[in-house]
């Protein structure tokens, strides 16, 4: 895939992940890893139960720079005070309905935020999520559309999904429409003439090995044409097929 | 969000998650949890290091039904033998480039698979992913577009991202649309096992006609695999290819 350009990076740099009252330090490490994998770097911890922590370092698998740089605050208000858009993650069915969006809609909204503004995405406790009071600090509530009978995601898994959507948004925001007919590797597509000469060689060889009866060819060549044309062969592949046919010719004539 | 209707459920039910040689049983538990959160249920483990495992049960947070039902196989070939579309997760930069898609494109393809066909998404080892040989069993390679400088996701996090995209697809594909993976004619697609036996026959024959040197095979078989898997052969086409190989065998041995 394409590397991110500076504008897309800037978009991801302005996103802060806030974890409220995390109980298990392993989850903080898992979150740091997921963030760094997706190109996010701003982590803020509201009153974590155990931090800094060796368990967090181990689970981060090398994202220790994010852990070292993480800010720790006493309250959620402090953590988001300098942000302009605050989004809280939420299960369904709160007392007061709030605008609920899914992670893809969140990414769409973030893509429209002016580059000088800061965005916070807030994740709650492992067992109870965010309180109603905390959710009411937020402009939007984002809900990952999980299985209603088994809806509680691991904290790092939830951050992974949101961070993935934000990265996909940043990537697509910079994508020039890529052409889609042609190989996606470094060998050119074969031209029609080369492919036809290969089919002629194939037909002669099939007659030679007595698999194709010229007086009763049935649908053999059409079937083989349909198969190979579906694959849209490149030049090297056509040459490999010609090489195989030549090897068979030599062997059967000797 | 909308609950899934029976057709969308059916789509998710036909998706198998395959984990190859997983080292840490905690990751197996995390995968089961992520799958169940997203409505997937078919888990297959290829030669896991430690399973069944109490650690897996703990990390699954209640997705023990998936762990209990998980199938364990010795080889990847067994795990995917009855599947029609096989997708391997991959980092970039393999020797032979293969068609690489992102998780959203994967979901788009899966949404077009005929409902009677089975899909496998294959995840590799925690440290080294899938081997080139394993990747060459696959029709497509899916790559999660991670930070190039820190690209290795936790196994459960990677499954979470893919499963999330598949669920989002199922949710948005509630409308009935014509499926597109599978033949649009009246012959069934070949299963992975049939195709593999054809490749084995092809390889033996290429050695016999002295086109393939077993001591220096270079990239011949991978190239032929890539070509023919791109075409997604039906049962009759595979039989035709076997017939050609048998005719060549007879002729060269006579």
UniProtKB/TrEMBL annotation, chains A, B:
- Domain of life here? Bacteria
In what residue span(s) does the tRNA/rRNA methyltransferase SpoU type domain sit?
15-164
Family assignment from sequence similarity? Belongs to the class IV-like SAM-binding methyltransferase superfamily. RNA methyltransferase TrmH family.
Name under which the protein is recorded: tRNA (cytidine/uridine-2'-O-)-methyltransferase TrmJ
In UniProt terms, what function does this protein have?
Answer: Catalyzes the formation of 2'O-methylated cytidine (Cm32) or 2'O-methylated uridine (Um32) at position 32 in tRNA.
Q: Which GO terms describe its cellular component?
A: cytosol
MF term (GO), any? RNA binding
Catalytic activity, as annotated: cytidine(32) in tRNA + S-adenosyl-L-methionine = 2'-O-methylcytidine(32) in tRNA + S-adenosyl-L-homocysteine + H(+); uridine(32) in tRNA + S-adenosyl-L-methionine = 2'-O-methyluridine(32) in tRNA + S-adenosyl-L-homocysteine + H(+)
Q: Which gene encodes it?
A: trmJ
- Native source organism of the sequence: Marinobacterium nitratireducens
The record's InterPro entries line, in alphabetical order, gives:
Alpha/beta_knot_MTases, RNA_MeTrfase_TrmJ/LasT, SpoU_MeTrfase, tRNA_m1G_MTases_N
What compartments host this protein?
A: Cytoplasm
**Subunit record text:** Homodimer.
EC number, as in UniProt? 2.1.1.200
User: Is Nuclease set as a keyword in this record?
Assistant: no
Q: Which UniProt keywords apply?
A: Cytoplasm, Methyltransferase, S-adenosyl-L-methionine, Transferase, tRNA processing
GO BP annotations of the record are: tRNA nucleoside ribose methylation
Q: Which PANTHER family match?
A: TRNA (CYTIDINE_URIDINE-2'-O-)-METHYLTRANSFERASE TRMJ, TRNA/RRNA METHYLTRANSFERASE
